[in-house]
Write a structure and sequence with these properties.
With 199 residues, the chain is α+β, with helices and mostly antiparallel strands.
């Protein structure tokens, strides 16, 4: 083969290799992006995730959304609400949530990813009624002078604090469930998807 023929062949080979590397680069770059937008097959099979804008929930207020046919509460807890959690631990059945149902990233003193935002499945762990919020405190509440806010299940009288932790001597056996959820931005959460699935 002549020098010209050899050079043309070498150019075609290099062009093919370069194009191949370029396409592979695009494919590699796209995979993490696409997987960051999609819940896992396990999550999809269990029920579609629900995205919630939490920016309008004022401190001390609660928003209820539906996920998998159940109410999910999102509470924006004030500093006082968070401070009060410590004061009632001796009255709780499982203050460390060791026997209760929450993802590992919510197995902490506030049972949440960010302390102020509590996310709970609003279904009583006794027989499945939906408890009522009782955020008034002390004499202003109908829960007793030492009440610091929480939830009351009217069906059989179970009581939970503002981390969903159950009080002693009530029928509910465990704390309220914390569902899987993630922050997808400062003001938006996705219920039904673990943080590692969106990061
Ligand atoms: S269902 Fe809530 S106390 Fe029985």
């Amino acid at each position: 083969m002549s020098d010209i023929g050899q050079n043309n062949g070498r150019r075609r080979f290099l062009t093919t290799v370069t194009t191949g590397v370029g396409l592979t680069g695009v494919a590699v770059a796209l995979v993490p992006f696409v997987s960051s937008m999609m819940p896992s097959a396990r999550a999809r099979a269990a029920g579609a995730p629900v995205e919630v804008d939490i920016s309008k929930i004022e401190p001390g207020q609660m928003l209820t959304v539906e996920w998998r046919g159940k109410p999910v509460w999102i509470v924006n807890r004030t500093e006082t609400m968070l401070d009060n959690l410590k004061t009632i631990e001796s009255k709780l059945s499982d203050p460390e949530s060791d026997e209760s149902d929450q993802p590992a990233y919510a197995h902490n003193e506030f049972r949440s990813i960010r302390p102020e935002f509590l996310v709970l499945v609003g279904v009583c762990t006794h027989l499945g009624c939906s408890p009522t919020k009782k955020f008034e405190i002390g004499a202003a509440s109908d829960m007793g002078d030492d009440w610091v806010g929480g939830f009351f299940c009217p069906c059989h009288g179970s009581i939970f604090d503002l981390a969903g932790r159950v009080f002693r001597n009530v029928p509910a056996p465990t704390n309220l469930q914390v569902p899987p959820y993630s922050f997808i931005s400062d003001n938006r959460i996705m219920i039904g998807v673990d943080p590692e699935e969106v990061s």
